[in-house]
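User: Second chain of the day. Same drill as before.
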Amino acid sequence: SKQWYQRRVAITAGNEIDEDIETNREYQLEMERSLRLVNIDYQQVGFYQSTYLNTHCDRNFLENVFVYLEEMKEAIAVIYDPLKTKLGNLNIRAFKLSLPAFRLYREEKDFTATMLKDNSLTFENLFKEIPVMVKNSALTNVLLCEIDRIQESTACLTLPTSSYLEKSMQMLLSGLDEVNQDLQKINLHQRNVYKQQQQLLQNVQKRKIENAQREKDGLNPLPEEDFSKQFKPPPPLGRLEPLLSSNRIAAHCEMIEEHVRNGIGKLYLADSFMS
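Assistant: Same format as last time:
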């Protein structure tokens, strides 16, 4: 639900939904009706999703964000990473489609290079990240203070785990493979376009030679035909999937950089002790 104060959205609760659309809709209406009866915030402002290592950025996620934004312009998507949270860092992020991406996706479900250029849309401004502020109740804050007092804090001595870095690198390499496959598709598309252009030029040149020969023989030249109608250019390649792949790669690079930056000093310190 939402409460507006200085253009902020307050999320007070989240409920699991069913994958079936009809069941999900019925559940939503029933839950909103029940919350309204007991005087609890019931307005829906988006959805949340659990994901590992920022793998949420795909076509399905974009479509869901777009659907919610069509119904409510303040809608957001909350992303929770349980793997990073398990390492001791609460990872909750909020996203919404940027205005250029929303307008473009409303007109066309797949983007071309020309569309991206005209709208100045890149993987960096495809989504807009919303700052998240977590607020707990007074009792929760008391409990956290009590836990912090009882337990000894050794987070400053914890070395970065290699498994987390290894999984991040695997995701990064997978994204680079997708980019490489996309480059192969682009090269094939360019070769097909060049091949058609060469065939078009050959036909035009052939007709000019035929007309020159007919003029020498005293015959009427053949009419100039529009050979471009015979050669339909290949359809432009869709750029939405590569755009999403680039967004995921950038997110993986940021995660790896943050993980290494926070742990590199600890590794040097541990190495000096062991040596």
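The first helix runs from residue 21 to 37.

User: Great, on to the next one.
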